[in-house]
Amino acid sequence: MTLLMLALIGGAIGAVSRFLVSQWLQAGLPHRLPWGTFTVNVVGSFILGMLSGLSAGALPAWVHVLAGAGFCGALTTYSAFGLETVRLAEGGSWRQASINAGATVVAGIGACWLGWLVSS
Fold first, then answer.
1. H-type helices in 60-93, by residue range?
2. Gap between the Cα atoms of 82 and 92, Å rounded
């Protein structure tokens, strides 16, 4: 049952959310940087930090699986982050590639830490 919740609920909602947020942001913001992927990775890091910061027993284990591994796992995307950074570099946009890589790592870790602090 846990695997079904993880895949069919958390994973489906996370993947659809990632797609919609990425499409919406990319349509409305400058295309030099992959804002959609950046946003979902930072938001997912914050949510996972919050879930991890909750004291044991604050939420049932299935909520952690559904929201953490399912939703956050499908919402965030390291592979798209890597591909978009490589494409920027291959296109000669080394500055944007460096900004994307550095900002994603720093903001993602910072968001996770903030989420942890907020929920602890």
1. 61-63, 73-75, 78-90
2. 16
CB atoms within 10 A of CB 102: 11
For residue 49, the tally of other CB atoms under 10 A from its CB is: 23
What pTM value is reported for the model? 0.90
Q: Where are the domains of the chain?
A: 2-12+37-119
DSSP letter at 56? T
Phi and psi, residue 43, nearest 5°: -65, -45
Distance CA 15, CA 7 (A): 10
Sign of CA dihedral 109, 111, 116, 117: positive
Q: What is the pLDDT of residues 3-42, one digit of tens each?
A: 777 778 888 999 999 999 988 988 877 777 899 999 999 9
Task: Give how far Cα 42 sits from Cα of 8, 61, 81, 109, Å.
Answer: 23, 23, 11, 8
Alpha-carbon torsion, ordered 11, 22, 104, 90, to 10 deg: 120
